[in-house]
Amino acid sequence: xxxxxxxxxxxxxxxxxxxxxxxxxxxxxxxxxxxxxxxxxxxxxxxxxxxxxxxxxxxxxxxxxxxxxxxxxxxxxxxxxx
Length: 82
Description:
This protein has about 80 residues and is mainly alpha-helical. The chain has one domain (about 5-70). The chain has two helices and no strands. It has helices at about 5-35, 40-65. Helix 1 packs antiparallel against helix 2 (about 40-65). It starts with a helix and ends in a 16-residue tail after the last helix.
C-alpha cells in the first residue's frame, strides 16, 4: 500500500483494535479479582463498551477520509490490505 493516508488509517485501526482487546482483558481480570457488584468493575465494563463503540464510529469516518471522501461510500474498498 503506497497511499500514506490509507497506511496511517491501518495503523490507527490496528492500535484501536489492540487497545480494545487490552481493555477487554483488563475487565476480565477485574471480574476475577473484584468483588461482585464492584463499582470499579461496573465503570470499566461500561467504559470498555463506550470505547469500542466510539472507536468504531471514529474508524468508520477515518476510513472514509482516508479514501479521499468519495461521493459514494460504495467506492470504498472493504479490504484495505488488497
